[in-house]
Amino acid sequence: MRLLRVLITGAGGQLGHDLVGVFNIQDGEEVVALKHTDLDVTDRKATLEVFEQMHPDIVVHAAAWTAVDDSEANPDKAFSVNSLGTRHVANAARRTKAHLIYISTDYVFDGVAGRPYVEWDIPNPISVYGRSKFGGEKELDPAFTVVRTSWVCGLHGNNMVRTILKLAKMELAKTRSEKAATTGLRQEPLRFVDDQIGCPTFCYDLALAIKKLAVMRYEGIFHVTNQGETSWFGFAQEVLRLAGYDPFMVVPISTAQLNPPRAAPRPKYSVLDNAALRLAGLGLLPDWHESLEMLVKQGTEVW
After folding, report:
1. Is residue 14 in some structural domain?
2. Is residue 204 a part of any domain in this protein?
3. What domain range is 89 assigned to?
4. Residues 171-209 pLDDT 10s
5. φ and ψ at 152, to 5 degrees?
6. pLDDT, tens digit, 9 for 90 and up, residues 215-239
7. Of 190, 238, 267, 288, which cross-links 250 as Cys (Cβ 3.0–4.6 Å)?
8. 59: domain CATH number?
9. Which residue out of 129, 204, 245, 269 is catalytically annotated?
10. What is the domain count for the chain?
């Protein structure tokens, strides 16, 4: 009997790397991992040819252009990859009768509801990136699956945890230098916004949940995040604490105080209620504090 063939786009990204890992566990799946260099989803002909050749049973479409601020200045690229590219992948999945799982984002919401968003809330993206990802959602058939997630961090690739630890190391190295000792140079605080609230999500946990939804072919929209909410300021403090740094190295600022200001507007409160997972009895991801502790421990060993 042929193994279940799983095709993963965007396999070179931080989530893609963990998706390949969890699907490669010996559960009867054959994994086809495609990086951008293997498949440019904006190329319709190439996408159709790859699907016809591979004939997958399941497709996890993790390929995306996630440069939120750069998207404001280059909307054509954002829509070409995130919307039109998803159209090509969805069309190829239909032709080969594959079940498609599309990875989307909390940025499809405007963040003004003042409460966690459920899967049945109406999106209203406020950035080009958010609109382009919502455009991708609209290319899917009702029997396909949308997985919305937020604030994704993993062991592989760049993410906020890695950035926070890098900044902390740089600041400490600067103030411990010989020049600092002779000039009395003081440690500068790290500044993170406290008026953007969301749910940190960790790639390994997310990948396991996606695999469950994919193999069981659950259709429709699912919000999949780690449990609990925080601000970027609170998140940065916890990263520092877990890594053995002084959490008071970081101070809170407002989004308006960012220097330089960010090009793309962010939703202020984009917490995703994992209502569909909960109501379907599929189980929820761990609390974000637990998974962050594991990631910081792994990261300090390899970064």
Report:
1. yes
2. yes
3. 4-157+199-228+270-287
4. 888 777 655 555 655 668 899 999 999 999 999 999 999
5. -80, 135
6. 999 999 999 999 999 999 999 999 9
7. 190
8. 3.40.50.720
9. 129
10. 1
Sign of CA dihedral 201, 207, 211, 217: positive
129 is catalytic: yes
**DSSP collapsed to 3 states, 118-155:** CCCCCCCCCCHHHHHHHHHHCCCCCCCEEEEECCEECC
From CA 90, how far away is CA 81, in angstroms rounded?
13
Q: Which has the higher per-residue pLDDT, 187 or 55?
A: 55
Distance CA 200, CA 151 (A): 5
Averaged pLDDT, 241-251: 95
Write out the two tokens for 136: 């991708």
Whether 82 maps to a domain, the answer reads yes
